[in-house]
Write a structure and sequence with these properties.
24 strands, four-stranded antiparallel β-sheet, Neuraminidase, 1 helix, single chain, mainly beta, 6% helix, globular
Length: 303
């Protein structure tokens, strides 16, 4: 093969690789990791596999990790330990969310249940039946329940999809079944492992359709709005303002920050280890739960 032909082939490969990568906005900021951002309670020296993280209106940070003695942990905005609860309560910890009332919600993927707690750990509501696996038509049972989000009016939207179920389920604020949508498939509105769900200020829902490698956007009736396929393999999704945050826990091990207007990537942050959940505080600090990394990472804008 001539040198000219080799050069042409090499250039074509480079161009194809570049085209497959998401575009990065020139004005994107840069972040730095903050080590040792929290103070652990006595008897604890490290995180277990972290699967959920979120922040309440007061800036308190809640972490859900696979430590049977204290699976739900609360820290103040400065990282000081406040309290923990849920000892030996969960089979397989998964996502954690906070709502406008300051309540803490978690999913137990292994026992197919969703729990609502007060900020001090009092159990307020349970959805799903312990150890009972439902199907897509079930009204009171899940199968591999993954994530959830709470709307302004208290309606509950659950991503029920890290097993054979492939749906989003809607409940009223008092836990009554309303509807579900999805089903297995690749066409718009269908899912293949709806693993995470987020909501924006307008009430639009963003579903991380993991095996289909896309984020789908819906209204609260389940009507499909749009989808984006340039955000890797979405393990966890979160919306803050006009930004969509997506963590990819595959070998990519990265965080995408994108516009909720069109899904365009603003920044990509690498250097993570099996990230599964992401949240952002009022100052723009990012917290990421890592499963295999057994860590909760904090990132802040570099000055």
């Amino acid at each position: 093969m001539s040198r000219v032909r080799i050069a042409v082939v090499f250039a074509a490969v480079v161009l194809q690789f570049a085209a497959s990568r998401p575009s990065i906005a020139a004005d994107s900021g840069s972040y730095r990791f903050v080590d040792n951002w929290t103070t652990f309670p006595e008897g604890m020296t490290a995180w277990s596999s972290a699967t959920g993280v979120d922040i309440d209106a007061k800036g308190n940070i809640y972490v859900f990790h696979r430590n049977p003695a204290m699976p739900i942990m609360a820290f103040d905005k400065d990282g000081r330990f406040l309290r923990a609860w849920g000892q030996n309560m969960f089979k397989t910890t998964h996502f954690l969310r906070t709502d406008r009332a300051g309540h803490v919600w978690v999913t137990d993927r292994g026992d197919h249940q969703v729990f609502e707690f007060s900020a001090d750990g009092k159990l307020l509501m349970t959805l799903g039946r312990k150890g009972v696996a439902g199907d897509n038509e079930s009204r009171d049972a899940f199968n591999g329940v993954a994530d959830l989000v709470i709307a302004k009016n208290g309606d509950i939207f659950i991503a029920d999809g890290e097993s054979t179920n492939t749906r989003v389920v809607k409940y009223s604020k008092d836990g009554k079944f309303v509807t579900w949508w999805g089903g297995k498939g690749t066409e718009p509105g269908k899912f293949d492992e709806p693993h995470s769900i987020a909501i924006d200020a307008q009430g639009r829902l963003y579903v991380g359709d993991r095996r289909n490698k896309r984020v789908q956007v819906f209204d609260q009736r389940g009507q499909f709005i749009t989808q984006w396929t340039n955000l890797g393999t979405p393990w966890g999704v979160f919306v803050k303002g006009d930004r969509l945050y997506v963590v990819d826990g595959t070998e990519s091990n990265c965080l995408y920050i994108a516009s909720i207007k069109d899904g365009a990537v603003i920044e990509r942050i690498d250097g993570l280890k099996n990230p599964t959940a992401v949240t952002v505080d009022e100052k723009g600090a990012i917290y990421i739960a890592e499963v295999n990394g057994a860590n909760v990472r904090k990132l802040v804008k570099a000055k």
